Amino acid sequence: MVSSNEYGSHTWELSLTVDHQHEGIEKVQVLHITGDLHVGGLMLKLVEKIEIAQDWSDYAFWWEQKKCWLLKTHWTLDKYGVQADAKLIFTAQHKMLRLRLPNMKTVRLKVSFSSMVFRAVSDICKVLNIRRSEELSLLKQSEGTLKKKKKKDKNSKEPATEDILNLSNSPVSSGLAGNAGLYSKTMTPVYDPVSGSPASSTITWFSDGSSTEQNCSILALSHSTCSPEMLAEMYQPRTLADKAKLNAGWLDSSRSLMEQGVVEEDLLLLRFKYYTFFDLNPKYDAVRINQIYEQARWAILLEEIDCTEEEMLIFAALQAQYHVSKLSLSSETQDSICESEVDEVEAALSNLEVTLEGGNKSNILEDITDIPKLADNLKLVRPKKLALKAIKTYWFVFRDTSISYFKNKESAQGEPVEKLNLKGCEVVPDVNVAAKKFGIKLLIPVADGMNEVYLRCDNEDQYARWMAACVLASKGKTMADSSYQHEVQKILSFLQMKNWTMSSQAASEPENVDMKPECFVSPRYTKKFKSKQLTARILEAHQNVSQMSLVEAKLRFIQAWQSLPEFGLSYYIVRFKGSKKDDVLGVSYNRLIRIDMATGDPITTWRFSNMKQWNVNWEIRQVAIEFDQNVSIAFTCLSADCKIIHEYIGGYIFLSTRSKDHNETLDEELFHKLTGGQE
What we know:
CATH superfamily of the domain at 372-479: Pleckstrin-homology domain (PH domain)/Phosphotyrosine-binding domain (PTB)
Low-confidence stretches: 147-161, 177-191, 193-209, 331-341, 353-369, 502-512
Family: Belongs to the kindlin family.
Helix content: 25-40%
Protein name: FERM1 protein
Keywords: Cell adhesion
GO cellular component, one term: focal adhesion
GO biological process, one term: cell-matrix adhesion
Mean pLDDT: 81
């Protein structure tokens, strides 16, 4: 028999570290406990022993060796596996974090270090007045991007850290619960259509006080242009491998900040990770629209996404228009809000949304009964060896998701020369409005790679109709889809911005305009043109956008960004199963693209709509995906953890389930089911 005194010897000592700022009180405390004590009881014993009068409700135990929180306070120490050698730290769950936003502004706020990153980002977005937090995530700058900056200037300070916006006193940042009805569809529109800033009543959803109103206003407006010196200090990717470094540091949405090595006062980037900007509404999304615009602007300036010289001048003109409009606004007082301007901006949004397989379903009966077709004379260009091209005119017929072409119109009733199925193909614009060149490059999947076909149109209208049809067909949609006309109008609108004529006044007096052209274009074009030449060319492009309001200029900029062939692609270096060389994998909102790392040419495209299932072998870190028609691929990721690609695929599929008709609360459980994985 064991006596009660001997049984008492089964207690053991546990050393606990208390994270507090009180002088004269030991941070390390030793308690005598048993393994059947639950975590809540351990907290109580510890607080009673240290006798510090303060609110401990935000504190929890962090297990240093296992990198995990002990948040289930009803679990016993035995159930958690805590033994005498465990290093437990009693610390606050909410800690200060610095976040660099897309507009390069750094904010400092209190964030939950114990919640999953998905929930933490949701709370951050409530503080910043950004709806649809599921589109954003947190990014650690990769070592490759940081090293390049240091080499350029060892003495340079981190940009934007000197001017930090402190939001630590906001209610959500302090760990208080957010308002469940925050984004009710019936809330009163509170939007200034000219400045794009939230009206003061918007601020009452989050906090009281003029300081918070001022902070939200800062985030809703673009306040400064960047200098060439600032651009030179920042990381600019030159190759696909460089671009892959930009996406290596995404945090795991299913784990907490602390579990991923983030410590208090660390600097992370808050970025739009998923390029599906759902339900953009200028009445409520002043900050969100501005931050999307800023992310697009920096991507253009740092050449993270490629664009032509003509397109770069359009982006420069829209930035210049925003700059000029803001200057003119600052010298005037706005006494009233014009409702028609809100309507104009809302109309511009109809072309702006990017959804996985979205579209308005109001014309379903028309879609079923009337399948339109296109028939026109187009030029077919086939690349040949020795840099020679064969160009010939054929009679083309576009029906459903296929293009057939015939020798002439009269032979269209017979067999075509060739029939091209565009489902799953890549569609790349090849346009130079000034040179009257309206080309469509089609990369059609075949057994051994991609078959290149070029179509040449005669004019803008023909190009817009055929380009829109090709874009929809690549997604498996026909011209009967209600989004076809929107697509045509979007293309025409973009072409119209490119189709400028130089006014004699702008040409002769560029020096009269207060403009630093180097602030609006990437360094490549700063080197190519002299400052006066660049100013003249930007002013030339500016003619078509000079009447736009601030918000419309931002929305058009976003729309033009979305029109670029590389829009929405996140790159990773991978090794496909059975391959002897590395390739680049592009992950987009609706497809995966295998790209040749040396040439940058697409090799194969796989659409999410054809995907049957995907899984990860966590032991060998290999992603395996099955598609229709017995197509399967497998690859390991070399430039990042395979969990990041796994989360990207699951995240885009999750975002495709969103609907305006549903309650706006997110199905967080479904997100983690699709993205979490089992390691």
